[in-house]
Amino acid sequence: SQQGEEDPQALSIQEGENATMNCSYKTSINNLQWYRQNSGRGLVHLILIRSNEREKHSGRLRVTLDTSKKSSSLLITASRAADTASYFCATPGDDMRFGAGTRLTVKP
Amino acid sequence: DTGVSQDPRHKITKRGQNVTFRCDPISEHNRLYWYRQTLGQGPEFLTYFQNEAQLEKSRLLSDRFSAERPKGSFSTLEIQRTEQGDSAMYLCASSESGRPQAFFGQGTRLTVV
């Protein structure tokens, strides 16, 4: 498989605002996943969207997938300081590779 | 079972020494992955196992790096003749075959002085 590439590299917002991160990939996929990583910790799975889905929600998270553009976006609504973390997308095949991620800072 | 466990959490070693890290995956997971991550970067894929078989190795995994999963359960990652450039967080993850969600350990932070 190939890795996704996240954009922007860094994002700084105020608490309560929405945060949008994007992921682009190059080959066809069965699914795309988003992970979060707090500083110095392991990655935590957030949400998976399958290739036949266009949008998926989980709490304050909304993920979209556009297979024609080979892109996905992660929207975090009503952000909180605790959302400060790095966010990664992954398009798993037999292996699983990650891009450089988006470092989100939510200021209180 | 409380998730993926990595040991040690931190390791400081002198350049030239060998180090070995251990990863205990979630018990029913037959896939196990190793990654290396440096500050500000995403996890770099090193290798992965399906049961005891090592199916893919990154070119990042030089001849100083070796990984094993002898019984298809826990795995070890050994770095021989460590160099300062090996300083990084080493992450392990596991998943069930056919289920894409991976579960990560907390990582082993290696510092080579």
Strand and helix layout:
The complex is a heterodimer of chains A (108) and B (113).
Chain A: E1 5-7, E2 10-14, E3 19-24, E4 31-37, E5 43-50, E6 55-58, E7 61-66, E8 71-76, E9 85-90, E10 102-107
Chain B: E1 5-7, E2 10-13, E3 19-24, E4 31-37, E5 44-50, E6 53-57, E7 65-68, E8 75-79, E9 88-95, E10 103-104, E11 108-112
Parallel strand pairs in B: 2-11
Antiparallel strand pairs in B: 1-3, 3-8, 4-5, 4-9, 5-6, 7-8, 9-10, 9-11
Task: Describe what you observe in this structure.
The complex is a heterodimer of chains A (108) and B (113). With 108 residues, chain A is mainly beta. Helix content of chain A is 0%, strand content 53%. Chain A has strands spanning 5-7, 10-14, 19-24, 31-37, 43-50, 55-58, 61-66, 71-76, 85-90, 102-107. Chain A starts with a strand and ends with a strand. Chain B is an all-beta fold and 113 residues long. In chain B, 0% of the residues lie in helices and 50% in strands. Chain B contains no helices and eleven strands. Chain B has strands at residues 5-7, 10-13, 19-24, 31-37, 44-50, 53-57, 65-68, 75-79, 88-95, 103-104, 108-112. In chain B, the strands form two sheets. In chain B, strands 2, 4, 5, 6, 9, 10 and 11 form a seven-stranded mixed β-sheet that branches. In chain B, strands 1-3-8-7 form a four-stranded antiparallel β-sheet, with no helix packed on it. The termini of chain B are far apart. The chains are: A mainly beta (108), B mainly beta (113). Chain A binds chain B through residues 3, 30-31, 33, 35, 40-45, 48, 86, 88, 90, 92, 94-101, 103, and chain B through 4, 33, 35, 40-43, 45, 48, 50, 55-56, 89, 91, 93, 95, 100-107, 109.
